[in-house]
């Protein structure tokens, strides 16, 4: 059975460090899924919010999504797992990132596993993951991975002599936490309850002649 991983990236530039981080998280997740020997196919779809900016703004005003936004929303709400990455603006997630999740029904992501990540110019903004992103997805009742990944400009530098790059370590750990949701057997649907019509229940309580 094919599992669907949707990667949402809110980077504005091209190239974008936000997209780069998203790609590295995706690659690490693919590696971890392969390491588990999973036989299921993994389908990955990347949603670039930059390309949906106009339709997101129009939807905020009209309440109706355009065709590209509708497809992105359907992919996101139908995913088996999400990787969500935003740049940090003014100490929080970007307005484009928040607006996309604002146009999604608040119950549509209930139970969806989410790996959260962010990029910024300085390590001082790393707490955006805990004071902004994690509460957002908790409100949406998603299942947020314990490890969140933040990449500052300095994290893209050279690898230390011991080869243990902190960013690479966090990426691997986060991907490892997300992988079980993409490799575990799909839960079987609960058997349908057999309901006794109310009239029959009353009849059973009636005195027997």
UniProtKB/TrEMBL annotation:
Residues 5-154 form the NADPH-dependent FMN reductase-like domain. Pfam families: FMN_red (PF03358). InterPro entries: CE1759_FMN_reduct, Flavoprotein-like_sf, FMN_Rdtase-like_dom, NAD(P)H-dep_FMN_reductase. Keywords: Flavoprotein, FMN, Oxidoreductase. It comes from the Bacteria. NCBIfam families: LLM_duo_CE1759 (TIGR04037). This is FMN reductase. The lineage of its organism: Bacteria, Bacillati, Actinomycetota, Actinomycetes, Kitasatosporales.
